[in-house]
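Escalation from tier 1.

The customer reports that the assembly of two entities below gives different structure tokens on two consecutive runs. Tier 1 could not reproduce it. I'm attaching the input and our single run for tier 2 to review.
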Amino acid sequence: AQSVTQPDIHITVSEGASLELRCNYSYGATPYLFWYVQSPGQGLQLLLKYFSGDTLVQGIKGFEAEFKRSQSSFNLRKPSVHWSDAAEYFCAVGLGGGGNKLTFGTGTQLKVEL
Amino acid sequence: GAVVSQHPSWVICKSGTSVKIECRSLDFQATTMFWYRQFPKKSLMLMATSNEGSKATYEQGVEKDKFLINHASLTLSTLTVTSAHPEDSSFYICSAKGGLAGFETQYFGPGTRLLVL
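Tier 1 run:
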């Protein structure tokens, strides 16, 4: 069965510093890959997605992610974090037709120090 | 675009009662809707997948008689927690995909927090 691992439960960075959130997946083929952000009181918002093509994908809010097949990873990056980026971040793998069945990682809680 | 709403946002009920949660796609027609459950400090777990006009497909371990799902139209799905008990207390989240919102991406509602006393 597929699985998604986010090894960092909590990460704290200073505002303006760079950020990298790690995500590893286990699956035989290349799945659909997603990063979502969840803020209190709000639904999960899609940051970016990868299905095929260029392995470096750009998303909203200045985020990007790089798919590395050899490492089964899809890490999320941002060059300069803003205080408003503090939230819970989820990596997800989509399988089945159109990536229907989403399997989520356990999430990484990002705290931003001013 | 691709906005999904849920109602109510939170609900408190007594043990033994049934609770209905609505999920609506506001600006697109959702051919498929999904229901997730999120436990504190945990990830989202897919409960079921529903396609408009057909029966929902439940994930292993999810009681279909406890969690009734109806996807009566292309913009509305409902989850009814029947005879709720304290262990059903959780955060329930729906998502939707399809139509102009795209084939591969799920768009999520804000969630409904259920507390069963």
